[in-house]
Specification:
This protein is an alpha/beta fold and 326 residues long. The protein is built from eleven helices and eleven strands. The protein has a seven-stranded mixed sheet with strand order 3-2-1-4-5-10-11, sandwiched between helices. The chain has a four-stranded parallel sheet with strand order 7-8-6-9, sandwiched between helices.
């Protein structure tokens, strides 16, 4: 077993439901094995500025059900520089932290890899992002909760859409990836799903809506990922209104409600297992790896690969959604 005595854990980038469950698992697993665990506030920026939560064990009771992250999070431009990383290393040296668990998205884990290379410190990453766009895992911490939040909101909106014969364009998160849009769209029976991975043709969308109207669909839901190439929900709705006036058109942007709220059972269990595995892999000598779940098995993927490859949308899901909405 590796001679690790003190682990630092941090959350970085956008917050995601389940991060607290992961923090709790890392802390309790480390403590069980006689390892000191220190929380690092505000991600890499907090590491640079020496914002530490000592004796984290006392603070992880009653947090598994809470959204957000008790360690706070931030994005750090300074950590992208050699000087910034040097400051961060100096701070953890003062506490004799000899390993890190980093919970965050693609950018956060790229930073972890760079830091690990420069200062020869073991790092294990956990994929914490609602976007589910991380290579090396079928699901990320927070994704399931975000999906359920979207589904609950859209179910309510559909009641209004049906009552008033309205066409709703609902914008969900997904600047670079359409996982939330695709799977929530299927779950709510959306009439169409627009995502960054596919090109949106407004004229084809209008023709399709005209067809839907002819088959007596008096209302509809269009799910739009915020990164769709034709623009956000407001821009797409405006373009559709110009060429198709048979529906009363409305727009709802779900925004940051998708990040909040108590994590689902799936996210709590996923985060707990990943946090436990992170510590166990550090003790076994692993480094510069990310814990993921693939085909219901927990696996390790090199941080080099997670930064260079993409988790891709299954285009067949979009074809299926079209068929089922017709």
């Amino acid at each position: 077993m590796a001679n690790i005595k003190h682990i630092g854990v941090l959350t970085s980038g956008g917050d995601a439901p389940g991060m607290n469950a992961a923090i709790r698992a890392v802390t309790r697993t480390g403590t069980y094995h006689g390892i000191e665990v220190t929380g690092i506030y505000r991600g890499y920026q907090g590491m640079i500025e020496g914002e530490f939560h000592l004796n984290l064990k006392k603070s992880v009771s009653n947090i598994i059900q809470r959204g957000g992250t008790i360690l706070k999070t931030a994005r750090s431009e300074e950590f992208k520089t050699k000087e910034g990383r040097k400051k961060a290393h100096h701070q953890i040296q003062k506490l004799e932290i000899d390993a890190l668990v980093v919970i965050g998205g693609d950018g956060s884990l790229r930073g972890a890899l760079e830091f690990s290379k420069e200062y020869d410190i073991p790092v294990i990453g956990l994929p914490g992002t609602i976007d589910n766009d991380m290579y090396g895992t079928d699901s990320t911490i927070g994704y399931d909760t975000a999906l359920n939040t979207v589904v609950q909101a859209v179910d309510k909106i559909r009641d209004t859409a049906g009552s008033h014969n309205r066409l709703f364009f609902i914008e969900v998160m997904g600047r670079d990836a359409g996982f939330i849009a695709t799977n929530s769209g299927i779950a709510v029976g959306a009439e169409d799903i627009l995502i960054p991975e596919t090109e949106t043709h407004i004229d084809e969308l209008i023709k399709w809506l005209q067809h839907e109207r002819r088959v007596n669909k008096t209302s509809g839901i269009i799910i739009v990922a915020e990164g769709d190439d034709a623009g956000g929900a407001y821009e797409i709705a405006r373009k559709v209104e110009e060429g198709f006036t048979e529906y009363e058109t409305k727009v709802t942007v779900l925004g940051h409600i998708q990040r909040g709220g108590p994590p689902t059972c799936n996210d709590r269990v996923l985060a707990s297992r990943m946090g436990y595995d992170a510590v166990m892999h550090l003790l076994s000598g692993e480094r510069s790896k990310m814990v993921g779940i693939v085909n219901n098995r927990f696996v390790l993927t090199s941080l080099e690969k997670t930064g260079k490859r993409a988790h891709k949308i299954d285009k067949q899901l979009l074809e299926m959604a079209k068929v089922l909405s017709s």
